[in-house]
């Protein structure tokens, strides 16, 4: 039976998907991993809400280890969940809320007018939260956990990864910049949008760190029960595909690269050696979030966020009980099988 000395933490790289308010599910996953205590978390890749979780976790690790990271994540999401009066903007129960009709009408206008018209001053409450909760100067120091924050260059569609040395409030905001809601974030004279358009999240930078175990926390549905038929359903499904396509391609490509590296008799290059020993893992939120309407990604109301956190904690605790002992010894998921295109039955 595989075992690990109790006083040695297994290094585990984290790849955290975005998903708006659904990122609170990842908060719960991270809280359970930190509480469990058997893993070191030296490298994180994140996009949008995944980037916020990565930044808060790294900030907390520096401030107070695993306990500090749990506290930092809680403080961040509590600040997000109390910044706007969502109790006035939502309807329905906490476990499955919706946007109030007035707020839905406002969101409809975002399809007709740009944020430069609806929000000419470019106000974004997330800027204040980040300024209050995250010490970016500390994260830029060499001893900080490795961070890879994804954004999309708005004039080319190319992925831009912000590493520790480049971290700032603007870099974080760029990773979460939905262009229908916010002005493009300008960094060094260049405009950036949400990283989900190009990587949700990026995987290969984590491989290059040399950490042998890689855990993806996935918020995007892998399959859907029904095909969309209405105009709104089709629009929403197409948007979800856009935000997941880059990740699916990279995950399958990574699995193929690992298979080829392992099939080679000799591993001459550093990357090939890292691919040969890479072990992959997945915590998937689909079963817990599949029943929620797409609009709930916009509901940053603390009771709802705490409900998602509890779902994430329970999912991670089940994964730890079932698969946690295998981390450091074997993969618990095959990305090629998990994310490859479905084949027609013979």
Write the layout of secondary structure elements.
Blueprint: E1 10-11, E2 13-16, H1 23-36, E3 39-40, E4 43-47, H2 49-81, E5 90-91, E6 98-99, H3 101-109, H4 115-118, H5 125-133, H6 136-139, E7 146-153, E8 159-162, H7 169-175, E9 185-187, E10 190-194, H8 204-207, E11 213-218, H9 231-263, H10 270-277, E12 279-284, H11 286-289, H12 302-323, H13 335-339
Helix pairs in contact: 1-2, 1-12, 2-5, 5-7, 9-10
Describe this structure in words.
Strands 2, 4, 7, 8, 9, 10, 11 and 12 form an eight-stranded mixed β-sheet that branches. A two-stranded parallel sheet has the order 1-3. Strands 5-6 form a two-stranded antiparallel sheet. Helix 5 crosses helix 7 and helix 9 crosses helix 10. The chain has 13 helices and twelve strands. The N terminus is likely disordered. The protein has 346 residues and is α/β, with parallel strands linked by helices.
| SS field, number of helical segments | 13
* Uncertain runs: 1-5
Distance between the termini: 38 Å
Roughly how many Å is the radius of gyration? 20 Å
Q: Approximately how much beta-strand content do the residues carry? A: 5-15%
The helix/strand order is EEHEEHEEHHHHEEHEEHEHHEHHH
The tally of beta strands, per DSSP, is 12
Q: What is the oligomeric state here?
A: single chain
Q: Can you give the helix content as a percent range?
A: 40-55%
Dominant shape: globular
Overall pLDDT, averaged? 88
Class from secondary-structure proportions: alpha/beta
Profile the largest sheet: 8 strands, mixed
Q: Brief overview, please?
A:
The chain has 346 residues and is an alpha/beta fold. It is built from 13 helices and twelve strands.
